[in-house]
């Protein structure tokens, strides 16, 4: 990727994050007064006004917005109303748990999805293909909260094999990782099958088969690399969705990550924490898209040629 293209994409990413910051700030501030949720309905108007002045919420909205942007530039995401701690500190404590869950589930889903998608493509319209596609549809359409609760009922309450909540031991990771990984596996299996089917019957694959190239080599060294572009696209999108995608799973399993922190912040109207998490999600998506574009140029020589022509 040349410098000009990288600069253009970075500018687009910056504008995307700015739009998210602005929309989130305006929407949250127009949704109601967070001080009322903090002090309760019984607090006197004087106490409410005192807290509003303390957190700068008595100023006009445009002044709050300009001040917020200035603080963001300096790395200050604001102060949590509920915990009286910097929002970045609360997210920093929860983020490692989300990354542990997200990358574990992502790795499981990617490995299973690629394998199942390849097997389904190689056995098109056969029982194996129909079984894999049924699993794929079930995997990405089944709500995470339903699957999570079902796994808790079976493995934690009925069979007592695994813990149902918390993050104290590696065993606590199993059920939430399976729940989130099942979704990833279903999506990856579907896209892998579609991408593989497009290349399996092309002329170079027919020629490789005629030359007696072993099936495993044809699949892994000829078909899969040529089917990589759509697979990389969906992998990049789902990689950028790790933070947002874990919200429901973390809530169901009591996993102390960013998703559970966001639910608590929304409930208590803790604007600083909500804004910081949404910014983190937007930045993650932008970085994931940049990574996908970079991988494109490494995998497909035609992408490099197109960049040079531009």
TrEMBL record:
Gene3D superfamilies: MetI-like. GO terms for molecular function: dipeptide transmembrane transporter activity. PROSITE patterns: ABC_TM1 (PS50928). It is a multi-pass membrane protein. Keywords: Cell membrane, Membrane, Transmembrane, Transmembrane helix, Transport. Residues 95-296 form the ABC transmembrane type-1 domain. GO terms for cellular component: plasma membrane. It comes from the Bacteria. Signal peptide: none annotated. SUPFAM superfamilies: MetI-like. Coiled coil: none annotated. Its main location: membrane. Pfam families: BPD_transp_1 (PF00528), BPD_transp_1_N (PF19300). It is found in: Cell membrane. The chain crosses the membrane at residues 12-30, 103-123, 135-159, 171-192, 227-253, 273-299. Belongs to the binding-protein-dependent transport system permease family. This is ABC transporter permease. It comes from Achromobacter aloeverae.
């Amino acid at each position: 990727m040349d410098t000009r293209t990288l600069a253009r994409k970075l500018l687009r990413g910056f504008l995307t994050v700015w739009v998210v910051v602005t929309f989130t700030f305006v929407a949250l501030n127009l949704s109601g007064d967070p001080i009322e949720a903090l002090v309760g309905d019984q607090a006197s108007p004087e106490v409410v006004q005192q807290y509003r002045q303390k957190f700068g919420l008595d100023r006009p909205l445009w002044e709050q917005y300009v001040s917020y942007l200035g603080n963001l530039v300096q790395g200050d995401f604001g102060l949590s109303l509920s915990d009286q701690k910097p929002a970045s500190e609360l997210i920093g404590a929860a983020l490692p748990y989300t990354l542990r869950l997200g990358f574990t589930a992502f790795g499981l889903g990617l490995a299973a999805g690629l394998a199942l998608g390849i097997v389904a493509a190689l056995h098109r319209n056969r029982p194996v293909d129909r079984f894999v596609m049924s699993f794929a549809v079930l995997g990405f359409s089944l709500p995470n909260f339903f699957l999570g609760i079902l796994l808790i009922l079976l493995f934690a309450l009925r069979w007592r094999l695994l813990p149902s909540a918390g993050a104290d031991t590696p065993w606590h990771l199993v059920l939430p990782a399976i729940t989130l990984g099942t979704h990833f596996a279903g999506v990856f299996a579907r896209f892998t099958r579609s991408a593989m089917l497009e290349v399996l019957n092309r002329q170079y694959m027919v020629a490789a088969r005629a030359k007696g190239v072993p099936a495993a080599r044809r699949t892994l060294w000829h078909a899969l690399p040529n089917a990589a572009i759509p697979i990389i696209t969906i992998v990049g999108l789902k990689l950028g969705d790790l933070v947002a995608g874990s919200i429901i799973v973390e809530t169901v399993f009591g996993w102390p990550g960013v998703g559970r922190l966001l639910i608590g912040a929304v409930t208590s109207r803790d604007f600083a924490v909500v804004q910081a998490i949404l910014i983190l999600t937007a930045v993650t998506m932008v970085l994931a898209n940049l990574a996908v574009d970079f991988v494109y140029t490494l995998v497909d020589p035609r992408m490099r040629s197109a960049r040079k022509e531009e």
